[in-house]
Predict the structure.
Amino acid sequence: MHDVVTRSRTLFASHHVDLRATQSTTAIAAQLRESGLVTVDGLKSREAVLAFASRLMTITPHPHSTPDGLTSIRDTGAHSHRLGFAGLGNGELKAHTERAGVPAPPRLMLLVCLRPPVEGGDVLLADGRDILAGLSQSDHAAAVTLAKPRTAYFGAGAGHASQVFTVHADNRVSIRLRQDSLARWSPVAQPYLPALRRVIFDCQRHLALAPGQGYLLDNHRWLHSRTRFSGDRLCLRALGEPRFALRHGFTPIPSIHPLPRTNETI
């Protein structure tokens, strides 16, 4: 447990940007371009979260959001057993990207803790760049297959046929994933899912959030998940498009063998 706490603090500190510093928005934009992840603190109210999110992104409404565009992530006691509503329960959430079932998922996701749980509820983050590298090295056929067009269908009836890895014309890569009952897989992709899950597990890094702390990530690069929790945990989430230039996807680690281009714009 001590090692997990230490690694959580290290992850938070190594990606932290002080919002009180001059040019903090410029620093956030630069870090998102470099690593795809920023951690922040001092956001202890809904008004502060909304002001910060609005400064960085054009907020995209979500089916569960309120009119200001923010979504309260908490155990409602009524949604955990409904398809696609696991985030509104207190159970484990498997690694995913936000809005994988729409044609163009939002580029940014901000999540801020206002009230921590009594126990559990740690965030688990995994960098898609590391996932692709690990999968390519351990089972390159899996990486190639999961980049083939339309090997996955994410969402319900109005979902979207896509793939886990989208390789763009400039060879940058975007990732898209959900692992609940609203994810369906083609027969060619199905055998490679255990290898993908193993690599995701190996890449996950814990992040325990205190009140006012949060993270901002590139939703086309990072997967996020959550451990089971108890207590009245409350987080606020914002999704949206950046108010600054941000190239699609990420540059793969140079040592891996390139994947064929997907010929699809994410």
User: Anything to note?
Assistant: The CA atoms of residues 167 and 173 lie 5 Å apart. Residues 2-242 form a domain with the Double-stranded beta-helix fold (CATH 3.60.130.10). Residues 2-14 form the longest helix (13 residues). The helical segments are 2-14, 24-34, 46-56, 128-138, 140-145, 193-203.
